[in-house]
Write a structure and sequence with these properties.
Number of strands: 14
Helix content: 10-25%
Number of domains: 1
Number of helices: 3
Distance between the termini: 28 Å
Strand order of the largest sheet: 2-4-3-11-12-8-5-14
Order of helices and strands: HEEEEHEEEEEEHEEEE
Radius of gyration: 17 Å
Length: 223
């Protein structure tokens, strides 16, 4: 069964996703095979959306902007590239997606990657931050400890229950990277369980990050 699902994902990606070449495509995705990295242009996300009455703790790292992004109210950065294109770019580095986890029902699996955020610095040179340092736990005032990030790939979803068509689920939700297994419509997850979410109340590390809307780069590196 898993082999059939993996084959289906590959077929759908081949049909839906254009080839992503080294150096960058029209979405700005850049592959550097010598450095084993995929780089995606993005922006620091707003933490208060006008249609919501409160600020919600961070649950994800990257998603589409509101209103298209389902997790746009609880993300570090927003971006515009299709998650399935980023999946394809990671495959170009030689990685093979595992399987996303969802709640307590299943665990995430897949090859391990590292996540960085490249931000501007006062001296004009870009500064590369481990993604864990971009978030602070409001309960302790400390940044996240190093986490394990897994290239899971997304679940496939059927947008119309009356049709047999399936699509790459993350292309619908816009979610690229999740901290907790709150959705399987994503490309990368940590190995944290759903029960771990109650231990943290995460917010942006404003001491290190530029202001809302600032252009930054999300970097995914194969190990």
């Amino acid at each position: 069964m898993m082999a059939r699902i993996s084959a289906l994902v590959g077929i759908v990606l081949a049909l839906l996703v254009p080839n992503v070449s080294s150096g960058g495509d029209k979405t700005g995705i850049a592959i550097a095979k010598d450095k084993k990295t995929v780089t995606i242009p993005c922006k620091i996300a707003p933490r208060k959306l006008p249609n919501l009455d409160q600020i919600y703790p961070l649950e994800v790292v990257a998603t589409f902007p509101a209103p298209k992004g389902q997790k746009a109210h609880e993300t570090v950065v927003i971006y515009d590239a299709k998650p399935s294109e980023i999946h394809k770019a990671l495959e170009a580095l030689g990685l093979k997606a595992g399987k996303p986890g969802l709640g307590e029902r299943s665990k995430a699996s897949g090859p391990e990657v590292k996540i960085f955020l490249e931000v501007p610095s006062p001296d004009g040179k870009p500064k590369r931050l481990p993604i864990e340092e971009t978030m602070v736990d409001l309960n302790t005032g400390k940044t996240l400890p190093p986490l394990t990030w897994l290239f899971t790939g997304s679940a496939m979803k059927s947008p119309d229950p009356e049709k047999d068509d399936v699509v790459y689920g993350a292309d619908l939700s816009g979610t690229l990277i999740t901290i907790f297994p709150v959705t399987d419509d994503t490309v990368i997850q940590t190995n944290l369980a759903a029960k771990d979410e109650k231990n943290w109340k995460l917010e942006l590390n404003k001491k290190l990050l530029p202001k809302e809307g600032a252009a930054v780069k999300l970097i995914i590196q194969a190990k």
